[in-house]
Amino acid sequence: AELHNMRQRHVWIKELCHFILILVVYVLVLFRERDTAAMHSLNLLVEQSLAGLENNAGTNFNEITVIDDVFTWLDEAFIPAIYDDLWYNGDRKELINQHTFGPGHTRIVGGWRVLQERYSENGTSCYVGRFDRLRPVCVTDELEKNPFGPGAVNPIISADPNDDPLVFSEISQSFKYACDQPLGRAVGNRDCGYILHATFANNSGIVEHARNKVAMLKKYRWLDRQTRALRIGMTLYNENMKRWISVELILEVSRAGGVKSSRSVDVLHLSPFDSKDWTGQASFDLILQISFVILTVAYIHDVAYKLKHTTTATRRARFHHNTMCSPAQFGLEVMCL
User: Fold this and answer.
1) Which residues make beta-bridge pairs with 60?
2) Residue 195: phi, psi to the nearest 5?
3) pLDDT tens sequence across 274-332
4) CA-to-CA distance for 199 and 113, rounded, in angstroms?
5) CA distance 181 to 259
6) pLDDT digits (tens, 9 = 90+) for 75-112
């Protein structure tokens, strides 16, 4: 009996050491590239360089309280800042340094988009009062997916003779429900809506083209009482910290008409997997992740092998005697939860 207990303790100690090894590697993999200082500084960059931009009236993104301020902020603050082609001393930026902030540490990659979510209009479920007899005016919390404005089939809204045909054809797509394919993840609800795209192209009229889009959206009332939320999204890259930043400036509009601003900033570190930035630390990070996968698979295989070769009678006997699982098995289950 004593020999059996010694063997049992030996097995428990072995499995416990195995589990501790897996746990240590798991924690190293999880927190290896979590740089709190970098995340804080990049959040501060977004606050100062994007959300802190002010229009001619001195209103920044965080202070927007009415729909009209959205268009003036985009036209007078946001677009001039991201398309600025001059350094702070007046010198013209080189082509490689276009769409950068400050001294050039951070650049916008690929352009930007504005996505609108809309409330669904449903007059049949609303209280019918004196004004509702003329036209139902209430909206529900359901999401609208039907086209409207110049994007609607019926009634057809044609371009004004003074409108730029190219700009009108582009903004008319913003009145139709569509989904974007985000980078690195599956399409979610926040990637579907009524979308305005603005890409970066190296031509002399790109700033005016972007401003004309915003002005024409305002002209055809792209934002109205059915507007539920507005998301201004872009991807940034900071060269010094080797970090990608996914940014969304968000405006939520209540059914009562109130506007609330917020922002979402996700910081990603992908340089360990970039062959141009391959260092000893990057190799160690990759070895850690591969080791974690191998150790986890090996442990699961070991547990499955034991379960497979354990007879039903033995399992019942262990159950009736209330035999506890080993610390390693219990720890692995807790970690998986």
Assistant:
1) 54
2) -115, 135
3) 544 455 555 666 676 777 777 777 777 777 776 666 555 455 555 444 444 554 454 44
4) 8
5) 27
6) 999 998 888 888 888 888 887 777 887 777 888 888 89
155 preceded by a cis bond (ω within 30 of 0): yes
Residues counted in the chain: 337
HEC profile of the chain = CHHHHHHHHHHHHHHHHHHHHHHHHHHHHHHCCCCHHHHHHHHHHHHHHHHCCECCCCCEHHHCCCHHHHHHHHHHHHHHHHCCCECCCCCECCHHHCCEECCCCEEEEEEEEEEEEEEEECHHHCCCCCCCCCCCCCEEEEECCCCCHHHCCCCCCCCCCCCCHHHHHHHHHHHCEEECCCCCCCCCHHHEEEEEEECCCCCCCHHHHHHHHHHHHHHCCCCCCCEEEEEEEEEEEECCCCEEEEEEEEEEECCCCCEEEEEEEEEECCHHHCHHHCCHHHHHHHHHHHHHHHHHHHHHHHHHHHHHCCCHHHHHHHHHCCCCCCHHHHHHHHHHC
Q: Give the list of residues 6+ apart from residue 280 with CB closer than 8 angstroms, or none.
A: none
Place of tokens 């092998």: 305
Measured CA to CA, the distance from residue 6 to residue 76 in angstroms comes to: 77
pLDDT in tens, 12-63: 787 777 777 777 777 766 665 556 677 788 888 888 888 999 999 999 999 9
**Residues of 159-190 as b/e, b for ≥16 C-beta within 10 angstroms?**
beeebbeebbebbbebbbbbeeeeeeeeeeeb
pTM for the model: 0.69
Quote the Cα angle for 195-136-69, to 5°. Answer: 40
Distance between CA atoms of residues 93 and 82, nearest Å = 13
Contact 50, 60 (CB under 8 A): no
